[in-house]
Amino acid sequence: MILPIYLYGHPALRKKAGEITPDYPDLKELVENMFATMYNADGIGLAAPQIGLDIRLFVVDLEPLAEDNPLYSGFKKVFINPVIAEETGETVKMEEGCLSLPGINENIDRKEKIRVQYFDENFIFHDETYDAFFARCIQHEYDHIEGILFVDRISGIRKQLIKGKLNNLIKGRVNCRYKVRASDGKN
Ligand code: NI
Hints:
The protein has helices at about 25-40, 130-145, 155-160, 165-170; strands spanning about 5, 45, 55-60, 75-95, 105-120, 125-130, 180. Helix content is about 20%, strand content about 30%.
């Protein structure tokens, strides 16, 4: 089932999400719905707060990028109760976008390497390190479950420059192929 994606300005995106247990109701179906919603919007990552759930879960699938770089092939993962245990290396600038902020792309500074501990969809524990774009995606999605959006990480001047676009998102004035839900709940 394809779910509406909550837009910038919706309070659901600002909550610090809570951990879940293996008996979380209909977890398998939820994960399937999140992948379907993400694919429908041509995204490569989606976090539970973006569909209005304040739980520590996000999905990533980098397969769409595999056409240009086979390195990304088969990277389809579910992260439950993740913890970024370490962030190391150089600070790298890279352009990011987000399904909750359609039409906005900004350069964001992040550490290039992470160590992440998480449970997968079968509640099997993993302790892994990632760098480059893999780390970037996980850091972006992890921010979502902390109630942080990538535009929180841009300079005051940049934020001022995109203020009009942000206000349009708050008001639900957006031209979007996929189903969204704005802060006023009217979309
Ligand atoms: Ni995002």
